[in-house]
Amino acid sequence: MIFYSLASAFLFASSHVESLKVILDPDDSSYDRAVDTYFKAVGIESEDDEFFSQFGGLLERSQKGLLASRKMKQLKSAIVGVMADSIKQLNTTTGSGFGRYCGYGCWCLAVHEHIIMDAVAPGGNPVDDIDRACRQHHVCTTCLSDKHKTQKSTCLAEDNIYKLIIDTEAKELDCSLNKNSCRRDICECDKRLAMDLKTHEHEWNVNYHTGRAGFDRAESCPHHPGGGNQGGSGGGKPRPPPTGDKCCGKAPDFYMKTRSEPFCCRGFPTANQEC
């Protein structure tokens, strides 16, 4: 098993390596260059997906935009890491795998788009299993601020970049290098999203894509009480809360307890009084 550090990511394409693990470390000054090189090595360039081609220049105009861009590239790295082979096959028909999930359904990557583009906030019923995976990711990252109460002002998924190990042969992700518990949990949330998207890739339907088919999120994804965006404007900046009134479980399997559930008992054998 061969490990390549961030600076060595440029050697990724070697055909003589039986198994290769790429380590992307945001603490390294070459992080952004290495991520872009990684995309090229697996056949996916930033220009190939509409999110970065349309908003890349806009993101670079402010410090907040640069952070948002790095976060989106990191999420893209995770998704590309487990789907690289299928993504290259998709380029000839519907574009890069990552672009397929930007503006998909009611929830897919909507949190990041909402913050960056002042777009309609995520909400409503997921349109399919891909959308459900994105909603679960939203629940997961939102609940982290509740779990890390002492870090509530800083444990935000859109503000934290973590270390990521990508096994390019096994198509697996590893978050173990993150010693900070908040960043580790954010990494685990992103890892689950990437794996879930890989599982349900076959369900992707262009009719649910805002950019490629004109899917109207505002009309098709009515917000439930308690599950919409704060302020009710649809274009406000605060992160919209998921439906429910309390976060239960742990990363990456957080869920929202509904008002009809007195306790966080999902997954427990309540007949044995273990909850």
UniProtKB/TrEMBL annotation:
Belongs to the phospholipase A2 family. It comes from the Eukaryota. It comes from Oikopleura dioica (Tunicate). It holds the Pfam family Phospholip_A2_1. Residues 86-212 form the Phospholipase A2-like central domain. Keywords: Signal. Residues 1-19 form the signal peptide. This is Phospholipase A2-like central domain-containing protein. GO terms for biological process: arachidonate secretion; phospholipid metabolic process. Residues 225-237 have a biased composition (Gly residues). Residues 219-245 are annotated as: Disordered. One of its GO terms (molecular function) is phospholipase A2 activity.
